[in-house]
Structures are given as structure tokens and as C-alpha cells.
Design a protein that fits this description.
The protein contains seven helices and eleven strands. It is of the alpha/beta class. The protein is globular.
């Protein structure tokens, strides 16, 4: 129940930016030689993603840990399933840019629980906790929607007479904490079992740990 309350509080929290925003002419740490930044929309507000310009910047402490108990925090494979594309930062930025420009067929999903999401997330993403798309997670989620409800309400899957029509389903770009985090991969596996088209599932395997390691703009929420 506490997790749900945090999710509801999110809209009332103050958005902060964990990155130095430099003018284009002042950018020395670019994303690529020809790309300094990407503009996105996060929670209705336009903002810019770029790399931290402080060349002495380091990874946030929460992502410096190298060892977590396995299971459940085991190293994930590079490929989850046939036709499910594993993407990296440049592809993620492209999906964020398209989504923020109005392409409603794309949804970038932070699959972590709200407690983690408020500690830092990717601008332009939306939080749909992994527990809403996991049978195991739903057992501990007191008021969880079923996976079918989430697919119908958020992913544009048409469900009629217990049959699912994925012809207009969104392309989902899903991430969690990193290559050791099973949350996003478990969600993708469940969606595949439900019949979600593999070619409409994109997995950012590096997740937040890879994102912050490049010094890319991160947003978090605080009271």
C-alpha cells in the first residue's frame, strides 16, 4: 500500500535536475561528435538531456555497488528473446525524442517501483512499476491492476471476448536499474507470454546505472 501512496504523491513532488545545463556553444562533453543535447518532455515540462559538463563528475553513490545477492540480482543476458531489440543510450535518446515530439505509438517505461524512480529517472519516461505486470509482484501489491488492465489502459491493446488485438499496441521501451536488475526483463517476458509482439518491445539493458555512468541528465523528485 505504501508503494501505491508514493506513486500518487509523485505529481505533487518538486522536479529537480541532476545535470549541469550548458548553452550549446559551451558544450565540451557532447553525446556524439555531432549531437550536444536532446530536447524531451517530462511530466508536461520541456527539458534538455545532455551529458554533465563537469569532467570530474562521478557516478552517484547508489550505483557504485558492484555486488548484490543473486538471485534475484543476477546478470541479465544481452538478448532476452528473438526479435526483442536490446538498445543502448543513443537508441534510447532517439525514442525519447520521437515520443516527446508527439509520436504516441512510443512509450518509454521506467519499470522500477516509485521509491527507486523518485531517486532518479530518465527524462521523458513514465513510471509503470514492474509489479503491475508481474504475477509475483501483484501478490504483494494490494491494489494492483491486472496485466491485462495495464495493457488495455496504457499500451492500447484492445481486449474483447478474452482475445487481445495488438495491431495498434504501442512500442514499449522498458528499463530498470541496470544489467543486474530483473524487473524490466521479467515484464518483457510476461508481455511476450501474453502475446505482445516482440518487435514492439525494446529493452534498455543498461538502465539507470549505464545512464548515470555517461553523466546524462537525470530527474528526481523531492519534497
Amino acid at each position: 500500500m505504501m508503494t501505491r501512496k508514493i506513486a500518487l504523491m509523485t505529481g505533487a513532488l518538486l522536479l529537480s535536475i541532476l545535470s549541469f545545463t550548458a548553452h550549446a556553444k559551451d558544450v565540451t562533453v557532447k553525446i556524439t561528435p555531432n549531437l550536444s543535447s536532446v530536447d524531451v518532455v517530462h511530466m508536461g515540462k520541456r527539458m534538455t538531456i545532455q551529458r554533465n559538463q563537469n569532467v570530474k563528475n562521478t557516478i552517484p553513490a547508489m550505483f557504485t555497488k558492484t555486488s548484490r545477492a543473486c538471485p534475484p540480482f543476477c546478470i541479465q543476458p544481452a538478448t532476452l528473446a528473438p526479435k526483442v531489440e536490446t538498445i543502448a543510450e543513443l537508441e534510447m535518446l532517439d525514442y525519447l525524442k520521437k515520443s516527446s515530439a508527439g509520436d504516441s505509438s512510443i512509450l518509454v517505461i521506467d519499470a522500477r517501483t516509485p521509491e527507486w524512480m523518485t531517486r532518479g529517472t530518465i527524462p521523458g519516461s513514465v513510471n509503470i512499476p514492474w509489479t503491475q505486470l508481474s504475477v509475483k509482484g501483484a501478490e504483494a501489491w494490494e491494489d494492483a491492476s491486472s496485466a491485462e488492465d495495464v495493457m488495455a489502459d496504457r499500451f492500447d491493446v484492445v481486449i474483447k471476448d478474452n482475445k487481445m488485438d495488438f495491431s495498434k499496441a504501442k512500442t514499449l521501451v522498458i528499463f530498470c536499474n541496470g544489467a543486474w536488475c530483473p524487473q524490466s526483463s521479467e515484464n518483457i517476458k510476461l508481455l511476450l507470454k501474453k502475446g505482445y509482439p516482440a518487435e514492439k518491445l525494446k529493452w534498455y539493458r543498461g538502465g539507470m546505472q549505464a545512464w548515470v555512468s555517461f553523466g546524462l541528465t537525470t530527474v528526481y523528485f523531492k519534497k
